[in-house]
């Protein structure tokens, strides 16, 4: 049994799609499935920087248009052995998805964009509490739906976590995405310093972060107590020791929830709004929409005010601990296996 993943990762788009595909791939691998990724060259470079990577990588030529890419995939030696293709990314057109479903044995799609168009998938995966089953019944009427918190896929490092009492968490953690698409890390740190921050700060930058030299130069001069980790490979350990995290919304918010870590979620892309709004209503995080831009001084003031509110942080932690569920990837894999069997028998 083999599963092919087709997804994107780059300095421009970040690492979110690649990371959730990796999470599902790890669980498939643990269930004795062969895993193959079809990636562009930049995404391959980012993938192989991971110590927890699983799966072979096929590099797709950059110059292929959509139809050429589908032809390329269909002529891979691995194609006849595939049981499913998993698609994750916003750059795949409806035409591409329709043709992929026509030629693939089964198509599973990670979706959180709600594009009001046919999805052409056999399985839909959307771990957001805001996932709308009515929408999917309209635009993927025949698909099996893996919706809501029970189907959040997390990498294997989050499956079994030690319990760290909240009183032993002392760090403010800033992690603004694999590429920090709005370049907020350094301006926020500068604003925190200006406003007198004195807590231990951990700054995590992703493999696709494009402002590393400027950040390192500033860190060499600041008086703040800062640990900087670039391309962190132990995110679960970082999160369970954090008293408060400031993060770009997206898949990271589900990891923070699994670690019962209070958070300020920054909406940096339109498609993140629904999931982030649903998370905010659960009481373990607060959100701020920065798609149109952020005021670092105002954001720093908000961070410092929440940091100083011991009671609210404790309540947020308790809400997160009550909601944490780390078995979503296994449930998705079970759904995929059942759908594969159903389609083989039909």
TrEMBL record:
GO MF: hydrolase activity
- The answer, when asked if Hydrolase is one of the entry's keywords, is yes
Among Pfam families, the record links this protein to: Glyco_tran_28_C
Glycosyl transferase family 28 C-terminal domain location is 178-331
InterPro entries for this protein: Glyco_trans_28_C, PseG
Does the keyword section mention Hydrolase?
yes
State the protein's name.
Answer: UDP-2,4-diacetamido-2,4, 6-trideoxy-beta-L-altropyranose hydrolase
Gene field: pseG
